[in-house]
Amino acid sequence: MEALEIVRLVLRYLHLVGVALLLGGFAVQALAAQYRINSAMLYGAVAQIATGFALAAPLGRDEQPPPAKLAVKMAIALLIAAMVIVVRNKDSVAKGHFFAIGGMTLLNIGVATFWT
């Protein structure tokens, strides 16, 4: 296995850990009916941006994901991160704001899964 392939696989692994942190942190707060941003959501959103940006690089692959897909995923990820970062220090956030974060996270997973 080539070194660039190993780097790509590690980045993909960290990207999945980031989405797990973001969605898991959201689920914990939603199930407790406490609409606030926890550290897992913050770190997950940041990990999604960093690893997503790195994964968009060619990294020696012959076939790249469609540029439109990458742009849509990055736009959604940036919106999620902005919504998390802006209210991260508040004791609670509006229910709609909170559930928009979870919904956009699921939307981003859907784009990654179903857009080929």
Tell me about this structure.
With 116 residues, this protein is an all-alpha fold. It has one domain. It has four helices and no strands. The chain has helices spanning 3-31, 39-55, 67-86, 95-114. Helix 1 (3-31) packs antiparallel against helix 2 and helix 1 runs antiparallel to helix 4. The chain starts with a helix and ends with a helix.
Please sum up the structure shown.
The protein has one domain. Helices cover 74% and strands 0% of the residues.
How does the SSE layout of this entry go?
Layout: H1 3-31, H2 39-55, H3 67-86, H4 95-114
Helix pairs in contact: 1-2, 1-4, 2-3, 3-4
Kindly report the average pLDDT value.
Answer: 94
Q: Which series of helices and strands comes N to C?
A: HHHH
How many β strands by DSSP? Answer: 0
Structural shape: elongated
Strand content: under 5%
Major pleated sheet: none
Helix content: over 70%
Backbone CA Rg: 15 Å
Helix/strand/pairing class, anyone?
A: mainly alpha
List low-pLDDT spans.
none
Number of domains: 1
Q: How many helical elements?
A: 4
Distance between the termini: 25 Å
Task: Supply the key terms.
116 residues; mainly alpha; 4 helices; 0% strand
